[in-house]
Amino acid sequence: MRLFLISFSLLIASFTVHAESIGCVSTVFKLIGPNDKICIDSFSDPAVDGVVCHVSRAKTGGVSGAIGLAEDTSDASIACRQIGPITIKREIKDGESVFKESRSWLFKKLQVVRFYDKPNNTLIYLTYSDRVIEGSPKNAISTVPIMPWGKQ
């Protein structure tokens, strides 16, 4: 049983997308605790080589933000680009999650999901925020046409 749990944990961890922090800018000064910020992260699609996405979103500062109890806004922006030859490593499903980040202590998540527009040979990345009970209509998309790269 222990071996199963360890194997299962490693399997789940292998599907987790790790974002790389690019940087942040302060938007509101807080006397106590960190300032409110807009932060940018980058991540690669785990099922598609040759695509990188950048996500920006607000992070709440202050005391509640410092201890992880603040709920961040649902505002987010995304830009995805082809950075090399695009190789689809496995079957991809419409609406498949490629990135998740907690936006509050317990219930709210920022998600990026992928769709494939077959007639136009284009990958579409949608970012939105959701909660256990209701989400937000705020969303953004970025499209990546699948094009030859170099002398492909």
From TrEMBL:
One term under GO cellular component: cytosol
Show the InterPro entries listed in the entry. Uncharacterised_CreA
Checking Pfam families in the record gives: CreA
Does the keyword field hold Membrane? no
Q: Which UniProt keywords apply?
A: Signal
Would I find Signal among this entry's keywords?
yes
Highest taxon of the lineage: Bacteria
Q: Which residues form the signal peptide?
A: 1-19
UniProt cross-references to PANTHER family, sorted A to Z: PROTEIN CREA, PTHR37952
- Annotated protein name in UniProt: Protein CreA
Give the species this sequence originates from.
Answer: Sedimenticola thiotaurini
